[in-house]
């Protein structure tokens, strides 16, 4: 790959578009970039070091914490705390939000929400996982402790969002509300290089991604849409291809590049859906919309406009190519 620009250079270049920028957001990206490199290193030796498997604890949502979940959470938290630019953090792996109260951090104007290692049940079987992050401006006065309200903001208030995919190569993909850009990590140089500038969701696609094992538990609208995907029709390139990794970042990343739809509906198993609004759905919805895609949580329910009620809230989530999500919405409207 020819190296055009590094992530650091790209961010500095973009910062020049905002004359009032103080560099705090750039520092947040530096922290995330550093932690991502460390997590990349840890994941790559996961089979050798004794870091796969469960810790033996359950997190707040009753799920087994994997060792790498805990490692990733610690690394991102430490990297963000060290630069003193973030006043608080909420993580899928922490029961409550964290307030950084050293002299520099407490005057930081941003909070970060993070899913440090999404899809972590895939680590033991060598399947791609990811980190998802989002950044908001704090609402509480600077210098004061952060409050829960700083984190319970609707997704359309995000200042930045992104993910790191630890796949066949490691990539960092982010948006600050001005398009979506992807950077591939070169481990031999230790730098992220611009590889996917201005990523755009194809308007149509032929991939649908859903845990079809749960089919019997889905509502009728989703069932009918899945049947539609499987029906033969040359004009619309159906039947579509079914692809489901079970790792949101990987499923999202593939569909963003190739065109497709990802579904994690509510069901009798997960009455409010499984994915977390703050750590998973909102950042992905922000990226999807920035790339020209659509993200909804139901009929006429744009995910980014949902008012969060609690830190670990779960919602149904449908995201992908514009025409595919719009079609799904028509099924949801008609059959539920
Ligand atoms: P996690 O954050 O505990 O890893 O769970 C989220 C993951 C997503 O990455 C993925 O889309 C989903 O759970 C898969 O769930 P399921 O196994 O029910 O299909
Ligand atoms: Mg997750």
From TrEMBL:
Binding site for substrate: 118-121, 211, 244, 274
SUPFAM superfamilies given in the database record: Carbohydrate phosphatase
PROSITE patterns assigned: FBPASE
Catalyzed reactions: beta-D-fructose 1,6-bisphosphate + H2O = beta-D-fructose 6-phosphate + phosphate
Pathway annotation: Carbohydrate biosynthesis; Calvin cycle
Sequence positions that bind Mg(2+) 2: 115, 118, 280
Coarse class of the protein's main subcellular location: cytoplasm
The enzyme's E.C. designation: 3.1.3.11
Entry GO MF terms: fructose 1,6-bisphosphate 1-phosphatase activity
InterPro entries to which the protein is assigned, alphabetical: FBPase_C_dom (IPR044015), FBPase_class-1 (IPR000146), FBPase_N (IPR033391), FBPtase (IPR028343), Fructose_bisphosphatase_AS (IPR020548)
Keyword Chaperone: no
Bound cofactor: record note: Binds 2 magnesium ions per subunit.
Keyword field: Carbohydrate metabolism, Cytoplasm, Hydrolase, Magnesium, Metal-binding
Binding site for Mg(2+) 1: 92, 115, 117
Cellular compartments annotated: Cytoplasm
Enzyme class, UniProt record, top EC level: hydrolase
Domain spans labelled Fructose-1-6-bisphosphatase class I N-terminal: 5-197
Family, per entry: Belongs to the FBPase class 1 family.
Name this protein carries in UniProt: Fructose-1,6-bisphosphatase class 1
Taxonomic lineage: Bacteria, Pseudomonadati, Pseudomonadota, Gammaproteobacteria, Oceanospirillales
